[in-house]
Structures are given as C-alpha cells and as structure tokens.
Amino acid sequence: MGRDVIRIRTMTRPDVPLGMHLTRQAGWNQTEADWRRFLDLEPEGCLVALWEGRPAGTAVTAVFDSVAWIAMILVDKEVRGRGIGTRLVEQALAYLDGRQVRSIRLDATPLGRPIYEKLGFSPQYELARWEGDAPAVPPDLRVEPITADQLPAVVELDRRITGTHRQRLLEYLHRQVPGATRVLRVGDRMAGYATFREGSRAVQIGPAAALEPEAGRALADAMLRFSAGRPVFIDVPCDNGPATHWARTQGLVVQRYFTRMGRGPLVTDLPGSIWASSGPETG
What we know:
By secondary structure, the chain is an alpha+beta fold. The protein contains eight helices and 13 strands. The protein has two domains: 2-101, Gcn5-related N-acetyltransferase (GNAT) (Aminopeptidase, 3-Layer(aba) Sandwich); 129-276, Aminopeptidase.
C-alpha cells in the first residue's frame, strides 16, 4: 500500500464537481468558475490524485513566464495522512520543472508549511486573510472603471509590484467579471488597481495593488462599496501596514494566516504595495 496505490492524472472539465466537493469539504471559497479558470490558464498542469482508483485529491499550477504557482492541494478527508498531498505537490513540481520554470511560489497554511519545507520551499512573508461584512463607504470620484486601453498599464503596474508578468490572469479576470476592476490614476500615471470576484462563501477582493497608501485605501474602499452588506475576504501581506490598518478600521477581523513560500530564485516583489492578493491560487 502507500505510494503504489496513488496515481496522478491530468484534471479535465468533468472533474470540476470533484474540485467543488473538496472545496466545500475544506471550507474554502472557490467556485466552479474558479476551477474552470485554473483549467483554462494551465490545462496540462491541473492534477487529480487517485487512491485505489478513486479520485481523492487535486492540485493546480499556473505559469506566468519565469514564475509559477502551485495551489488547491486538496485531499478527501477519508484518505488524508497517506501521502496523497505530497505526491500531488511532487507531480506539480515535476510538471513545472518540465516547463523549465525556475521560480515556484505558493501560499501555505500552517498545516501545509512543513510539507513544503521538506520539498525545498522557503518562507518569504506572511499574509492575513481578513473577513467581515463589507460596510457602506462613500464613493471616491478619483476611482473609475477600467477601460480596455488601460489594461496594459494595469498589467505593467502589477508586474512592477508582484515581480510576475500576470497578463494572462488579469485579462482573464477582466473577461470573467466585466466591470469589476477599478483604477486610480494620478495625472497620466496609473497609481493602482483593484478587482473582486464572487466566492462560494464570500466576495473575494483582489488582486489589488497601489503605489501609494492613499490610492490603495481609495481602491479598497471601492471594493467594499460594491460588496456592501455582504461577507468579504481579502488577503493582505502583513508587511503592508497601511492596508492592515485599513482592514482593521473597516471592522474586518483576521480569519487565518498564510505563509508565502518560494522554491528557486527569489521573486522580488513589493508586499508593502500589495493591497490584496488574488488568493492563494496565483498570488
């Protein structure tokens, strides 16, 4: 038994119900639309683990040029503790090594961190997931809906702040949730952007990034305004003091912490300018 009864295969669209079953079992926030996005972004890098022939776990990857993410390491509660999660991560790493991706990142829960450390990942910084019911906030006329011609500037701003060229992700989110993205410009300069999407438990705010705290607060407020009266989640780097202060003053509370970890060359990002991660799936 053990490794011999674990098999890994590529995930396909008919496996989305499996992903949703495991998501609900874990109490996570992903939707069917999220699982379809994972498959669209990296169709060969989404995996299903079989235990004795039965689907029992998942993993997804996303490649953005020289940087990749691993996420959605989920194992059915009936067969946890049998090495399935480790095998999924190993297979995901093998896939990314085959793609010759040097820098690999993930957001680890406290339970998963020791496993990832054994596989060569090192901690980089902490993020807090803040949650609560979004308060009503007044509009800020400086914040405006994104236009098609502004998307390249948003992609470039995101690249400067995250150290990752996430054009495919940002374009996909823009198509997936038209009208959700807001930007703030200072003169001709793009000062920040923010977006949100529906989750199974709460509105997920993010990704969001801003060059100055004032822009970050205005954009984060705009996300709350769209979600007023509804539960929201927002994942904020603990190193971003202004964003942490903003979350606290808006009545949000910390639900849990993640550790952002990396394997391979360090990705130079600016957590103090990240106002909301896109979630543990793609940083």
